[in-house]
Amino acid sequence: MKKSIPLLIITFIALITLFFGVSREPNPPVEVLNSRFQDTSVIVGKSDLEVVWSDTIGKDQISFIYPFSKEQMKGKNVLITMGGMGAKLKWVEKWTEELYKSKLMEFNIGLIIVVKGPVEEFYDSREIDIKEMTKRFVAAYQEYDLNETFLIVHSSGVFPAHQMFDYLYLGGDDPITKKMNMRKLEILDPEGITKNKINYIMLDGELGIPKGYSLVEGMVKNLKQIYSFYAVDAQTGTESGMAHEAKKVKTEFDDKTKLYKYIAKNSGCNPGAKWCVHETLITTRPHNPAKYDLEKDYQIFDSTRKVVTGYMGVVKNGNWD
What we know:
This protein is α/β, with parallel strands linked by helices and 321 residues long. The chain has a single domain (33-317), classed as Rossmann fold. The protein is built from 11 helices and 9 strands. It has helices at 4-24, 40-44, 89-102, 130-144, 158-170, 175-179, 217-220, 243-252, 274-278, 294-297, 311-317; strands at residues 31-32, 52-57, 62-66, 77-82, 109-115, 149-154, 198-203, 225-233, 257-264. Strands 1-2-3-5-4-6-7-8-9 form a 9-stranded mixed beta sheet, sandwiched between helices. The chain is globular. The N and C termini lie far apart (79 Å). The model is unreliable at 1-50 (pLDDT under 50).
């Protein structure tokens, strides 16, 4: 009995210490980015900065990434990437990682938001929780006094982007819910804190007219600039799959839009393979010369297949570089 008393005391003290230790410093459920971004010194330029996946929305829908601590966030810029139809979140994350390491780290990025691609061509299901993402986007602007946003979207990724603009400036006037008399308008940026700060970078995108989520004047007037890019294969002259739609963006919103034709050299695309050329705005050499391979084109980059970033030169100074 004498031996058991000290043992009970030690056990009791250990439990109390454990309880109060956890109570004072709760650990938030975050996933360290190092599992995907292997070398944080490459990503942020400083080895003493921890990169974490600070938040997620939905099941494999949206990731929020903070390359810097909260104390360093004030006045920084935002990068948002949205994948094309069928692109899984982890694929878009890998593409975003390559973009950041290769070019975007030059743009003083403090918050990165990554969004999976729609499951359907025209985003009919509205399955991505863009409303919640938009709320957190505005909250980050309010908390950190953020500066510009670079919104880079590929193909059908334009539709979640248009939905985001809708929630920001029109209150969620979704044509689908409008038909069903279900909508309740709620402008998520009533103070206009994000107005004239979003650079909308469309990679072989479209207006969403007549199908999809339409880009309308009430959205566009609040954007800083639209950049509409399409590609032409240098060897075959084949235009990218959505080139005709990308040109319409300039026609519809001339004053706000800069249209740019990218000449894709050494793509390896077959003559007439417009959906292969469609991918040359993601990778310099798509994996399927006849069509596309989203899983590989978004994720596998090397010395022969480099991530395409030249459009950011157009955004920065008007020159592809």
